[in-house]
Amino acid sequence: MKKIKSHFQFSNQQRNGIFLLLIIIIALQCIYAFVDFSDEVLLNNDQTDKFRKELDSLRLIEIENNKPKIYPFNPNYITDYKGYTLGMTNEEIDRLHQFRESNRWVNSAKQFQQVTKVSDSLLNEISPYFKFPEWVTNPKTQANNYINSFSSHTKSKTFEQKIDLNQATANQLQKVYGVGEKLSERILKYRNKYGGFIADVELKEVYGLVPEVIDRIKNDFTVKTPRTIKTYNLNTATINELVLIKYIDYEVASNIIEERTLRDGFSSFEELTKIEDFPIKKLEIIQLYLRL
């Protein structure tokens, strides 16, 4: 009995230690019960909605950026792959190819739908990118019946009688009916910009000169001392050489080489007009830099 009692007898130091231990245990229990140790962060609902909208916006932008870009094109030259990327079915593409095989041309968005039977929604999506030749979209009006009495009563001058267009002055140019001070300045400005004319056809590059006035200029002027330029063989030129030519970009140059490979070479410059996206109205200018 004495031995059992001795187990429950403590010194003052031991009692203090036990009391301190009880206080620590109680304190830890209180902390565990009333303090939230979770890592969860509570967000304001407005902030959460704002953050979600920003993510949705960024996601839409990324989707839009990943969409294939569409550049202006002539729908008459749609290939199978081009039609597929535009969303056309095989049947719609085949209808267009059959129409073109009959040597006919699509000249409007409405006619394109009639031939291919594409839906209104697809037509509205791709028709803004249709690019037809200028003679289709902006046909020339009939020339007026007025004929300059001076030009109607004079014979065409010979090459020797004409003035060198690369040596002509503004006063000499202004003697041509329809060429005033502004047009003569533009002609000289173009000539000085490029170091002279290569050929008479470059007059078409001068802004404001209509065909009738160009014909009158060519009656009295012609290029006798053309500026020196580098020409390229159409059947051997590389893509890097073709892009150096005015009005030919990398896309057109790539199409030229692709068509050249399919044809096993070009036999005439007119064959270039069959190439997709080729600037047909600038063919005469482009020809100046090419040879066969």
UniProtKB/TrEMBL annotation:
Pfam families listed in its UniProt record: HHH_3 (PF12836)
SUPFAM superfamilies from the UniProt entry: RuvA domain 2-like
The protein's name in its UniProt record: Helix-hairpin-helix domain-containing protein
Organism the protein comes from: Winogradskyella aquimaris
